[in-house]
């Protein structure tokens, strides 16, 4: 149902989903399969394809190999969290990992395979086993494109692109302590018409991702500005751990590019971190056992310390010991991009 006014239009849906990353798209697909008669509004602040998920170059961690185990994955995760993980949540997510991979395959997401047909699992920082499912070096892009293609086939899912969620519509009961209120919908800015529309729904889902673009130097896209967390907080939700921002340790250092991420998979396949002044493989001093595959907080601090104590504003990620054919197979996108920059 739609009504119009000078300020904007009013829409009514069964479910309002804000965010078109993997979480938002996958939720819509699960919802349609369970209750196909529901009308769903899907909100994206830019094109539906522009989300943090599409920029993920590495893969998705899930236990699959016979040598691996759920318990080992949980142990690795808790260790990587440095004692700060909420264990029940971590365990629940990890146990759902293998089934999530099966669901993604159902949407024709083609994970890398070996010549024998087995999955070509990669190993990344903090993991004790190979358990990373990849789609080349563009896992996020391939996954979101596949889900987006399927999602657009359903008439009951209505896309609203270039629409920014401004605030949640709430209703409070000042004299009822057992009910702190409810969320009825959201005010959405239509960027093309410059009008604010009212979206009402029985269920509102925030799948808006993080706020990495708060920082100047980041691998996050422009859309990652934390809108969902801010709206939820203003509506009365409790938020926690907002001081924790994960920085990817390795971005390309170049005068004209400051946000090109070099996936952890490159280190997983043998790339070495070296001091730009001395050529020393410095991770031997910071993480003697895991080396370049230490957790991201350890690697990030190590790189920062090396830069602070040297005459250079960068460190080297050295994979010159690998062949050109190997580089093209493992990191085709990086190879092309770096060659283009070198040519310029």
Automatic annotation (TrEMBL):
Q: Which cofactor does it need?
A: FAD
Reactions catalysed: L-aspartate + O2 = iminosuccinate + H2O2
Domain of life where this protein originates: Bacteria
InterPro entries in alphabetical order: FAD-dep_OxRdtase_2_FAD-bd, FAD/NAD-bd_sf, NadB, Succ_DH/fumarate_Rdtase_cat_sf
EC code(s) of this entry? 1.4.3.16
Its EC top class is oxidoreductase
Name the pathway: Cofactor biosynthesis; NAD(+) biosynthesis; iminoaspartate from L-aspartate (oxidase route): step 1/1
SUPFAM superfamilies from the UniProt entry: FAD/NAD(P)-binding domain, Succinate dehydrogenase/fumarate reductase flavoprotein, catalytic domain
Segments forming domain FAD-dependent oxidoreductase 2 FAD-binding: 14-330
Keyword annotations from UniProtKB, A to Z: FAD, Flavoprotein, Oxidoreductase, Pyridine nucleotide biosynthesis
PANTHER family cross-referenced by the UniProt entry:
L-ASPARTATE OXIDASE (PTHR42716), L-ASPARTATE OXIDASE, CHLOROPLASTIC (PTHR42716:SF2)
Family in the record: Belongs to the FAD-dependent oxidoreductase 2 family. NadB subfamily.
Q: What is this protein called?
A: L-aspartate oxidase
The organism named in the record is Legionella oakridgensis ATCC 33761 = DSM 21215
- Name the lineage: Bacteria, Pseudomonadati, Pseudomonadota, Gammaproteobacteria, Legionellales
């Amino acid at each position: 149902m739609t009504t119009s006014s000078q300020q904007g239009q009013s829409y009514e849906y069964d479910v309002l989903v804000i965010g078109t990353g993997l979480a938002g798209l996958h939720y819509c697909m699960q919802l349609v399969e369970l209750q196909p008669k529901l009308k769903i509004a899907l909100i994206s602040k830019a094109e539906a394809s522009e989300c943090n998920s599409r920029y993920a170059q590495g893969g998705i961690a899930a236990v699959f190999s016979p040598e691996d185990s759920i318990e080992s994955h949980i142990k690795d995760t808790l260790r990587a969290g440095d004692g700060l993980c909420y264990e029940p949540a971590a365990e629940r997510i990890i146990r759902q990992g293998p089934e999530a991979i099966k669901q993604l395959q159902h949407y024709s997401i083609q994970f890398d395979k070996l010549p024998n047909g087995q999955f070509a699992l990669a190993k990344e920082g903090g993991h004790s086993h190979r358990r990373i499912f990849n789609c080349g070096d563009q896992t996020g892009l391939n996954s979101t494109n596949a889900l987006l293609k399927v999602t657009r086939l359903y008439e009951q899912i209505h896309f609203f692109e270039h629409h920014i969620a401004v605030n949640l519509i709430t209703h409070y009961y000042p004299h009822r302590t057992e009910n702190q209120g409810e969320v009825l919908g959201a005010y959405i800015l239509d960027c093309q018409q410059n009008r604010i529309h009212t979206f009402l729904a029985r269920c509102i889902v925030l799948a808006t991702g993080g706020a990495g673009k708060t920082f100047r130097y980041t691998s996050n896209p422009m859309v990652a500005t934390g809108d969902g967390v801010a709206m939820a907080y203003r509506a009365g939700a409790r938020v926690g751990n907002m001081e924790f921002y994960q920085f990817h340790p390795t971005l390309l250092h170049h005068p004209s590019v400051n946000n090109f991420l070099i996936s952890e998979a490159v280190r997983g396949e043998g790339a070495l971190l070296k001091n730009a002044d001395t050529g020393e493989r410095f991770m031997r001093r910071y993480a003697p056992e895991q080396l370049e595959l230490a957790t991201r907080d350890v690697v990030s601090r190590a790189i920062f310390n090396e830069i602070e104590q040297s005459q250079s504003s960068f460190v080297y990620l050295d994979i010159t010991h690998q062949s050109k054919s190997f580089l093209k197979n493992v990191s085709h996108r990086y190879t092309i991009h770096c060659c283009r920059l070198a040519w310029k």
